[in-house]
Amino acid sequence: MLPTDLRQAEAQLREALNSALKSNGKGRWTIELRFEGLRLLPLGLRLAEALDGEGIQLLVLCPDAGSTALGRRDHPGLASLISSLGDHRRLQAQESPEAPENGGHPLLVVVGPGPSDYELVEGVCTGHPGPVVLLNPTLEDGAVGIGSVARARRKGFLAPWQAAYALQPFANGALRRAYPGDWELYRLDPGGFRLAGTFPQKPSCLLYTSDAADEEDSV
Fold first, then answer.
1. Are the CB atoms for 154 and 139 separated by under 8 Å?
2. Residues 67, 41: contact at Cβ < 8 Å?
3. How far apart are CA 79 and CA 66, in angstroms?
4. The pTM is what?
5. Per-residue pLDDT tens for 32-44?
6. What whole-number percentage of the chain has pLDDT above 70?
7. Residue 165 in contact with residue 178, Cβ under 8 Å?
8. 114, 67, 33, 145 alpha-carbon torsion, rounded to 10°
9. CA dihedral of 165, 162, 154, 83, whole degrees rounded to 10
10. Taking Cα atoms as reference points, which of 217, 163, 166 lies closest to residue 187?
11. Which DSSP string corresponds to the chain?
12. What is the full DSSP assignment across 132-189?
């Protein structure tokens, strides 16, 4: 079911993420809320606050020093759990890969990594045996969207990632996925949004049309 507001969407994503983490404690997961103007850092810190309150060990990794400092300032209770990608990667290089004495590796929540962060994110994730969540990642650079580099990335580092939660509005509809459920395609009708079809895999953008939804209805 589509959420009615951001608060409900956040509740859905927390439930879906908990299900994902229970299914695979070392998984690679994404959370995507593709709304224009969405403030990612506050969203990521609210998620971290909720997970921390549930007793889940975690670290929040920000793309740069500025967002790291902002997060620590606005959420002093989480300050010790907030770091930058670069600082965490340097720390990894200094530490032993053995599991911590408390018996597990923390969940890494990486907030809004972009194309310029690709190699850093790959290094952090490769060096982390525990689970990782990317919040609204845009790691695939349009400049390398085709060709051997893009193909190597999709078959390598990007291949095992799964959507724990996704919510993407588009013209006259929306796409949603909450783990472990299927992808759900909704169409906007005069009476509101209605479910137009479900898919085991994320549908291509060619399906985000009224015609495609009609074809799904006829199957």
1. no
2. yes
3. 14
4. 0.86
5. 999 889 999 999 9
6. 83
7. yes
8. 0
9. 70
10. 217
11. ---SSHHHHHHHHHHHHHHHHHH-TT-EEEEEE--TT--HHHHHHHHHHHHHHTT--EEEEESSHHHHHHHHHH-GGGGGGEEEHHHHHHHHHHS-SSPPTTSSPPEEEEE---GGGHHHHHHHHHT--S-EEEES---S-GGGSSSHHHHHHHHTTTTT-EEEEEEEEETTEEEEEETTSPEEEEEEETTEEEEEEEESSPPPGGGSSHHHHHHHHH-
12. EEEES---S-GGGSSSHHHHHHHHTTTTT-EEEEEEEEETTEEEEEETTSPEEEEEEE
**CB neighbour list of residue 161: distance below 8 Å, 6 or more residues apart:** 28, 29, 30, 134
Paired with 183 in beta bridges are 177, 199
- Token pair, residue 188, equals 């906007």
Extract the tokens encoding 17.
């993420």
The residue to which tokens 């190597």 are assigned: 152
Tokens of 133: 């969540």
131's tokens: 């689970």
212: tokens are 């495609």
Question: What confidence tier does 153 reach under pLDDT thresholds 50, 70, 90?
Answer: low
